[in-house]
Design goal:
This protein is of the alpha+beta class and 181 residues long. Helices cover 50% and strands 22% of the residues. It is rod-shaped, with a radius of gyration of 51 Å.
């Protein structure tokens, strides 16, 4: 240990203010280095946060576009459903307007059929072949046949007219349909 002591004594330590300045420089150097490391970490964290925010914004934009496409598809589907319902209603109205057909069974047997499910009221069948018998029905149930009392000759016309009311209270004018035999 004596050699270390001799060596320390042989060094020129200078004056105390120089050493004090050196210690202060080392302290501020360490603080500066620590501050730059902290600043770099915060900058990297800010960059990651910015990137994440940009990705979230892009995802939100894609979600908005998908929602707009879905809404547009729903509108088109609703319009198509509405159009289909309108066409179905027109078909039902047409079927309701011309619901009758006559089935000929044998030489003199005729059945009047309704093509619809709704009942028809105060049904009358007229025309040259039908005038021979009683062809009035208070109600003809949906899809139900009724027997007609008709007589066809060589001179009789081949057309009958069916008239009916669509409601049980017989309101409005009777609806009519001509049927060729």
């Amino acid at each position: 240990m004596s050699q270390v002591t001799q060596w320390l004594n042989s060094l020129s330590w200078g004056n105390v203010p120089a050493w004090f300045a050196a210690v202060i420089s080392v302290i501020f150097g360490v603080l500066s280095w620590r501050s730059s490391r902290k600043s770099k970490a915060e900058r990297e964290q800010a960059e990651r946060a910015t990137l994440a925010a940009e990705q979230h914004a892009a995802a939100a934009e894609r979600a908005t576009q998908a929602a707009e496409r879905h809404a547009s598809a729903a509108e088109r589907s609703a319009a198509a459903d509405e159009k289909r319902l309108e066409l179905d209603q027109k078909d039902a109205d047409a079927a309701e307007r011309y619901p009758w057909y006559v089935e000929r069974r044998g030489s003199g047997d005729f059945l009047l059929h309704s093509r619809t499910d709704s009942p028809k009221y105060n049904v009358d069948v007229t025309g040259d072949p039908a005038d021979a018998g009683e062809n009035h029905f208070d109600v003809v149930h949906g899809r139900g046949p009724v027997a007609l009392d008709m007589f066809i000759t060589g001179q009789s016309e081949d057309t009958i007219v069916v008239s009916w009311h669509p409601t049980a209270d017989h309101t409005g004018e009777a609806w009519t349909q001509s049927i060729d035999l």
